[in-house]
């Protein structure tokens, strides 16, 4: 085996290495995984860390390690993370190696040790073979470095914590980077190993992954899904999250009309029920949407839609009859109203409002759908009479009006009765006889007028 130049052998013996700058840049994109995988995420931030290194070669070397951890993970999710490494081996070292071993190539591997959320992890990244330039022997300086690029074949599983927040990937406190370099000669493949160990530098944080929590709306319900028009409907729901606590706002949307109906505040996953505005007759779809207060750590979510059918109130008809259409000022007439469904069966509930002479009189409906009212004490004249159905529940039955009936109040001459009596009957021709006339009319009223007495005939 060829001997090494004195200066190079001395470098190995002293086991010293200059203070190279080892840049560790973690640009992030999630690798494929058999478990929960974040697809096409943004990459996490980049942190460069300086290291103090020692090794077998008395020349500066630069190691850059790149991992593809995701910028965002979800609680309890596992991501397969891959690391790749570039080691820039100094040209002077390469020159000395060629002098000792002849022209060949360089290969090897590097270990990168981290803590992921406090859990130790190690990436082992083999280098792809790099051939040495023939020009390095002729120029005598080896000024060009040789770059060893790892193939990124090593994959490490990292699991997010059970609560949302930040998952820090930090360097291990010591021996965080170990590079193993091999020199091989074409003729007999003699291997030369060079080991370099880097301990952690100023900042221990290599990368920070945002750990999010998925939310889910649960127990979403409407107080009723089929109502008559003008009937209030309330909506209720709660929110759960995979970890942490759900706080934010629940919004209820009519996706049919696009109307934002109501909101409820969510505190620790609980939200009060809210009453929705009255909706028009027809079909509606109601959706619940959760908007978290902390949009960095919690996902929004939606539930529904729930179909809501608003039906019109059932139509009714109201009929009206008068027991008399003409009365005297002292007389009366009985008005009777009858309410029934316009179609189908049923018994409307409510009252009848009788309207006449500028007044209204409400009478409750009987079980048979009828109501009666006595009209009296009216002056002479003609009076329109109308009956209106006023439903107890306007959401179930609609009101209706009867046709108008006319009631006439008239004053007519009363038919009188005259009774004639005598103080003596029979009587002598010499007797004085007094004739008495008594006049009466129906109803007991006092007749006003005079009585004419006429004597016809004589003694025969």
Task: Give the helix/strand layout.
Elements: H1 6-14, E1 52-55, E2 62-67, E3 72-74, E4 78-89, H2 91-101, E5 104-116, E6 119-131, H3 135-139, E7 146-150, E8 155-159, E9 165-171, E10 177-185, E11 191-199, E12 205-212, E13 215-222, E14 226-228, E15 233-241, E16 248-254, E17 259-266, E18 274-276, E19 282-292, E20 301-311, E21 316-322, E22 326-327, E23 332-341, E24 350-356, E25 359-364, E26 370-376, E27 381-391, E28 400-401, E29 405-409, E30 417-422, E31 435-440
Parallel strand pairs: 3-12, 14-20, 22-29
Antiparallel strand pairs: 1-11, 2-4, 4-7, 4-8, 5-6, 5-9, 5-10, 6-7, 9-12, 10-11, 13-15, 15-18, 16-17, 16-19, 19-20, 21-23, 23-26, 24-25, 24-27, 27-28, 27-29, 30-31
Count of alpha/pi helices: 3
Low-confidence stretches: 1-58, 188-203
Percentage beta strand: over 45%
Strand tally is: 31
- Give the end-to-end Cα distance, rounded to a whole number of Å: 194 Å
Q: What structural class is derived from the secondary structure elements?
A: mainly beta
Main sheet makeup: 12 strands, mixed
């Amino acid at each position: 085996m060829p001997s090494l130049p004195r200066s190079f052998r001395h470098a190995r013996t002293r086991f010293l290495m200059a203070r190279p700058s080892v840049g560790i840049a973690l640009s992030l994109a999630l690798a494929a995984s058999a478990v929960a995988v974040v697809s096409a995420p943004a990459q996490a931030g980049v942190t460069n860390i300086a290291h103090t290194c020692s090794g077998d070669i008395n020349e500066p070397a630069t190691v850059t390690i790149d991992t593809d951890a995701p910028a965002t993970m979800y609680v309890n999710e596992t991501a397969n993370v891959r690391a790749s490494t570039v080691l820039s081996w100094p040209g002077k070292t390469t020159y000395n190696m060629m002098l000792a071993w002849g022209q060949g190539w360089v290969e090897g591997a590097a270990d990168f040790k981290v803590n992921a959320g406090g859990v130790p992890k190690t990436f082992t990244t083999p280098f792809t073979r790099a051939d040495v330039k023939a020009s390095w022997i002729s120029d005598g300086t080896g000024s060009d470095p040789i770059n060893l690029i790892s193939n990124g074949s090593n994959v490490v599983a990292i699991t997010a914590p059970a609560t949302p927040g930040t998952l820090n990937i930090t360097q291990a406190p010591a021996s965080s980077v170990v590079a193993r370099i091999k020199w091989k000669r074409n003729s007999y493949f003699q291997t030369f190993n060079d080991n370099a160990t880097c301990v952690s530098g100023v900042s221990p944080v290599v990368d920070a992954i945002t750990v999010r929590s998925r939310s889910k709306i649960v127990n979403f319900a409407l107080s009723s899904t089929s109502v008559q028009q003008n009937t209030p409907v309330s909506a209720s729901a709660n929110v759960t999250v995979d970890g942490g606590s759900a706080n934010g706002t629940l919004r209820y949307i009519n996706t049919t009309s696009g109307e934002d109906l109501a909101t409820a505040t969510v505190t620790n996953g609980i939200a009060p029920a809210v009453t929705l505005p009255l909706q028009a007759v027809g079909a509606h779809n109601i959706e619940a949407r959760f908007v978290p207060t902390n949009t960095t750590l919690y996902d929004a979510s939606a539930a529904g839609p729930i179909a809501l059918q608003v039906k019109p109130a059932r139509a009714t008809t109201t009929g009206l009859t008068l027991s008399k259409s003409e009365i005297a000022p002292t007389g009366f007439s009985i008005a009777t109203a009858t309410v029934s469904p316009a179609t189908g069966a049923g018994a409307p509930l409510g009252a009848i409002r009788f309207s006449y002479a500028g007044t209204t009189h409400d009478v409750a409906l009987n079980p048979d759908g009828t109501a009666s009212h006595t009209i009296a004490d009216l002056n002479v004249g003609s009076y329109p009479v109308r009956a209106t159905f006023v439903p107890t529940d306007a959401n179930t039955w609609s009101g209706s009006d009867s046709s108008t009936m006319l009631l006439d109040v008239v004053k007519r001459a009363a038919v009188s009765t005259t009774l004639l009596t005598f103080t003596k009957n029979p009587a002598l021709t010499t007797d004085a006889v007094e004739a008495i006339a008594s006049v009466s009319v129906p109803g007991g009223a006092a007749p006003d007028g005079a009585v004419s007495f006429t004597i016809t005939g004589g003694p025969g």
